[in-house]
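Colleagues,

For the teaching module next term, I've prepared a clean inverse folding example: a structure given as tokens, and then the sequence designed for it. I'd like students to try predicting residues themselves before seeing the answer, so please don't circulate the second half yet.
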């Protein structure tokens, strides 16, 4: 079946400009603290984390965590499963969770609680996009790129059934299942 290209929602230039702003803000906020631990949530955050972390000007290290919630379709079940924990010790360290998208909020809500159980000095959150209309739990996003409408989005790390993750922009598609 022929696939149409996603419709651009946030252009590559707009994403890159916002990433620079977020990196500058985070660098200012953490300037007087110990090394920041950036925790990327696989898989979706890998591109955002790569760009964001390279624009920061403070001491920082990278960790990854993996969770699973959606399966391969377009519906969230609300259940979050930990697939891989952070490798390094984050006790007494400042942690910033980096997500591509906050949809229902269940994943970020779960991750905050899970990482807090490691007794870090602080846990804050950063997400490139958020679908405010879809929120099912109240979760703070300390650093947010964009609020977006409730459409299926792909690109810049976001996928639909593993497709379109590597697009440089964020686009909307109409799921077929
Ligand atoms: C996406 C996204 C978030 C989560 C947000 O991950 O990366 O982790 O869903 O949804 P929520 O706010 O409704 O919990 P997904 O499960 O699609 O995995 P992926 O990052 O590997 O694509």
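(Answer key — instructors only)
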């Amino acid at each position: 079946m022929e696939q149409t290209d996603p419709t651009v929602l946030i252009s590559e230039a707009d994403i890159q400009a916002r990433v620079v702003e977020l990196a500058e803000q985070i660098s200012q906020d953490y300037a007087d603290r110990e090394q920041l631990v950036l925790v990327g949530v696989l898989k979706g955050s890998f591109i955002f984390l790569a760009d964001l972390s390279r624009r920061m000007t403070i001491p920082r290290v990278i960790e990854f965590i993996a969770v699973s919630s959606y399966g391969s379709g377009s519906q969230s079940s609300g259940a979050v499963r930990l697939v891989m924990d952070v490798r390094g010790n984050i006790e007494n360290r400042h942690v910033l969770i980096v997500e591509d998208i906050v949809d229902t909020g269940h994943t970020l809500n779960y991750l905050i609680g899970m990482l807090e159980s490691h007794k870090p000095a602080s846990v804050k959150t950063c997400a490139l996009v958020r679908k405010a209309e879809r929120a099912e739990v109240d979760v703070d996003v300390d650093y947010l790129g964009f609020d977006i409408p409730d459409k299926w989005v792909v690109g810049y790390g976001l996928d639909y059934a593993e497709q379109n993750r590597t697009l440089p922009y964020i686009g909307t598609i109409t799921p077929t299942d």
